[in-house]
Amino acid sequence: MITFAVILIWLVYFALLYMIVFWLIVFMEDGISDNNKEPTRLPFVTIAIPAFNEEKGIIDTLNSAIKLDYPKEKMEILVMNDGSIDKTRQVVETFIESNKEYLVRLYNQENRGKGASLNVLLSKSGGEIFIPFDADSIIREDAIKKLLPVFEEGEEIAAVLPLMKVWQPKTWIQKIQWAEYMFNLFYKKLMSSLDCISVAPGPFSAYRKSLLEKVGGFSENNLTEDLEISLRLQKYHYKIVQVFNTEVYTKAPTTFKAFYAQRNRWYKGTILNALKYRRMIFNKEYGDFGMLQMPRLMFEGIVVFMIILLVAYSNIVAPLYAKLKMLYFTNLNILPGLKWGINNFRMIDLNFTNIFFSISLTGFAVLLLYYAHKACKEKLTKQGYFAVPSYLLMYGVLAGVVLLGVFFDLTRGKKQRW
After folding, report:
1. What is the pLDDT of residue 413?
2. Which residues pair with 105 in a beta bridge?
3. DSSP 283-334
4. So what's the pLDDT on residue 381?
């Protein structure tokens, strides 16, 4: 069992090194360039805000929307109160009454989920560009004018994505997510250069409405409707583009409990949607997306889950069992074992393979993080000196705990909505 675990871990090491070097090569060839073109025309735009129990944060989101640098006569803001049991409806109605110069409309329905809410707003929208905007997000004022020029590059471009960053991280887990978002955004930019983006996040991803309607709108019975619509757009060979010259901020979970709930839904949705679109896996018809991205979506969680179990067995369970067994036969006297270990220690006994891969992977990861933060115009130390090291050391553990919960939930058939 230990031998099998070691071989599998080595294979994973090689795969990770290969992928990291591959993405570094992609970056060296394409780099990161800001598209600072101005839009040649200003189409009518719909900003769609689905809301479920968002009384505390939706005002910030609405204020952010009306402050956008865009003609207010060419922009509408549609809010769907999806069966909230708090004061979301009253808060939005008060906002509308206080901002009559803007075209803001509120719709109310019984709770049907985010996908259904977006589809209702899509059917009522008059915009050529349809922009879902999560009710816990803040957008930069120049966003629309930065996203529009990309749509002018080709009719096949279905969605354009801004940088998504964490809004004012304060807790340790928010700062870990801040570092995570920087890395993921850099990765998405590289994916964008290969037409391999798999998810257009809820906060302010701009869609060409005609293409969104053409593929059937958002899935209404889906844990991650943003991932599902992105996979569907890729299925029909439309393009999703990541830009780096404007930003949207999302309020990240402040506690591990909230983090677990969010990531449980994300990871579970990823697995279920990868299964839904499994025909695209290793399918050359979908180019790099089929050969690179879909296999990652399908197998990443399973591989990580297996590695967690194998690493735990080979590095914790098996050694601990051997130590306890030794203590049992020495009547719980640990001194002979310690003396033997110290007296017989030799450099050649160290596992240089694991040391080499650990140092190499850490070095490449730090290099990628450096380029990621540079591309995102963020200093590595912006959130303190421990944010990035904490991400490198802790994120795998946190994600592993969530994945264990996901696989446990899937075996029980447990599924949530919002």
Report:
1. 76
2. 78
3. -GGGHHIIIIIHHHHHHHHHHHHHHHHHHHIIIIIHHHHHHHHHHHHTTT--
4. 85
Q: Which residues contact 396 (CB under 8 A, 6 or more apart)?
A: none
Q: Residues 122, 143, 156, CA angle at the centre, nearest 5°?
A: 55
Tokens read off for 12: 């994973």
Alpha-carbon gap, residue 353 to 277, rounded angstroms:
37
State the distance between the two ends of the chain, measured CA to CA, in whole angstroms.
41
207 backbone dihedrals φ, ψ, rounded to 5°: -115, 150
Is residue 157 packed enough to be buried (19+ CB in 10 Å), middle (13-18) or exposed (0-12)?
middle
Is residue 410 packed enough to be buried (19+ CB in 10 Å), middle (13-18) or exposed (0-12)?
Answer: middle
Closest CA to 242 of 23, 29, 35: 35
Per 3-state DSSP, the chain is made up of helix, strand and coil in percentages (nearest 5) of: 60, 15, 30
Strands 137-139 and 239-250: antiparallel
Q: What is the CA radius of gyration of the chain?
A: 24
- What phi and psi, each to the nearest 5 degrees, are found at residue 340? -65, -45
- The mean pLDDT values, 10 residues at a time, for the chain of 418 residues are 62 67 65 72 97 94 97 97 96 96 96 95 97 95 96 95 93 93 81 86 95 96 93 96 92 94 92 93 91 83 65 65 65 56 55 67 74 78 87 85 87 71
Instruction: Give the torsion sign (CA, 206, 223, 185, 179).
Output: positive
For 91-149, strand residue ranges (E) read 104-109, 129-132, 137-139
List strand residue ranges (DSSP E) for 127-231, in order. 129-132, 137-139, 157-166, 206-208
Predicted structure pTM score: 0.84
Q: Closest Cα to residue 143, out of 26, 214, 246?
A: 246
CA-to-CA distance for 333 and 246, rounded, in angstroms?
Answer: 63
Q: Tell me the C-alpha distance between 294 and 231, whole Å.
A: 9
Please tell me whether residue 211 adopts helix, strand or coil conformation.
helix
Rounded Cα distance, 35 and 24, in Å: 21
Instruction: Give yes or no for a contact between 179 and 166, defined as CB atoms under 8 angstroms apart.
Output: no
Q: What is the 8-class DSSP label of residue 383?
A: T
Q: Return the axis-axis angle of helices 225-235 and 114-124, rounded to nearest 10°.
A: 60
Query: How long, in residues, is the chain?
Result: 418
